[in-house]
Specification:
Layout lengths: L1 E2 L8 E4 L2 E11 L7 E8 L5 E7 L3 E4 L3 E11 L2 E5 L7 E5 H4 L11 E7 L2 E6 L3 E8 L13 E6 L4 E5 L7 E5 L4 E7 L2
Antiparallel strand pairs: 1-6, 2-3, 2-6, 3-4, 4-5, 7-8, 7-10, 8-9, 10-11, 12-13, 12-15, 13-14, 15-16
């Protein structure tokens, strides 16, 4: 059981018999009132975000989620297929709704962690940073660096993002999966 102070970001709790991920929490105390932990929670089954206040007397149980590392194979008509890295014959189909808009970070044969609650897949945990190859980049124009210029490039998964002007076609760049932003160039073409 977790007390109201132990409900912190990136913890998983069970509220109303459903698993939630704590996105943010802040303990506040107003005059003549007892402290409360104001939280934003994301339902792991439905994906909606709610706000909930936990008081000193409240306790919640921690959600025990099982994590399994699976290899991404391919996608077809809104279905994403994964396999067990130790036994490729064991395959699992995951619907687009569980992946959301993070499908741009899936690259064939990469390992990702699938979250399970009561033996049912409920989400995907991506690595914080992913390396992707640039397949399309406009040429840099001389004199564009006065304001620390950026340009839009297209990556091998179809993701379009802003990068510095020195990034060229064929370079491998590192992307932050939480923010979707360019981090650094890993290798030059």
């Amino acid at each position: 059981m977790l007390s109201y102070k132990e409900i912190t970001p990136r913890t998983y709790i069970i509220l109303d018999s459903e698993p939630y991920e704590v996105l943010s929490s802040q303990i506040t105390k107003k005059q003549r009132q007892k402290p409360a932990n104001q939280t934003r929670l994301r339902n792991l089954l439905r994906g909606n975000v709610i706000e909930h206040a936990f008081h000193q007397s409240d306790t919640v149980s921690e959600a025990f989620l099982e994590t399994r590392a699976l290899r991404y194979l391919y996608n077809h008509r809104g279905e994403y297929w994964f396999s067990n890295p130790l036994n490729p014959r064991e395959r699992l189909k995951i619907d687009t709704s569980l992946i959301g808009d993070k499908y741009y970070f899936l690259k064939e044969n990469n390992l990702v962690d699938i979250l399970y609650f009561n033996d049912k897949p409920i989400g995907i945990k991506f690595p914080i940073k992913v390396n992707l190859k640039v397949v399309e980049a406009p040429p840099s124009l001389r004199g564009d660096t006065a304001q620390g210029g950026t340009k839009q490039v297209t990556l091998e998964t179809g993701l379009v993002l802003n990068t510095p002007l020195f990034i060229n076609e064929g370079d491998v760049v590192r992307i932050n999966t939480e923010t979707g932003e360019y981090v650094e160039r890993v290798s030059k073409s």
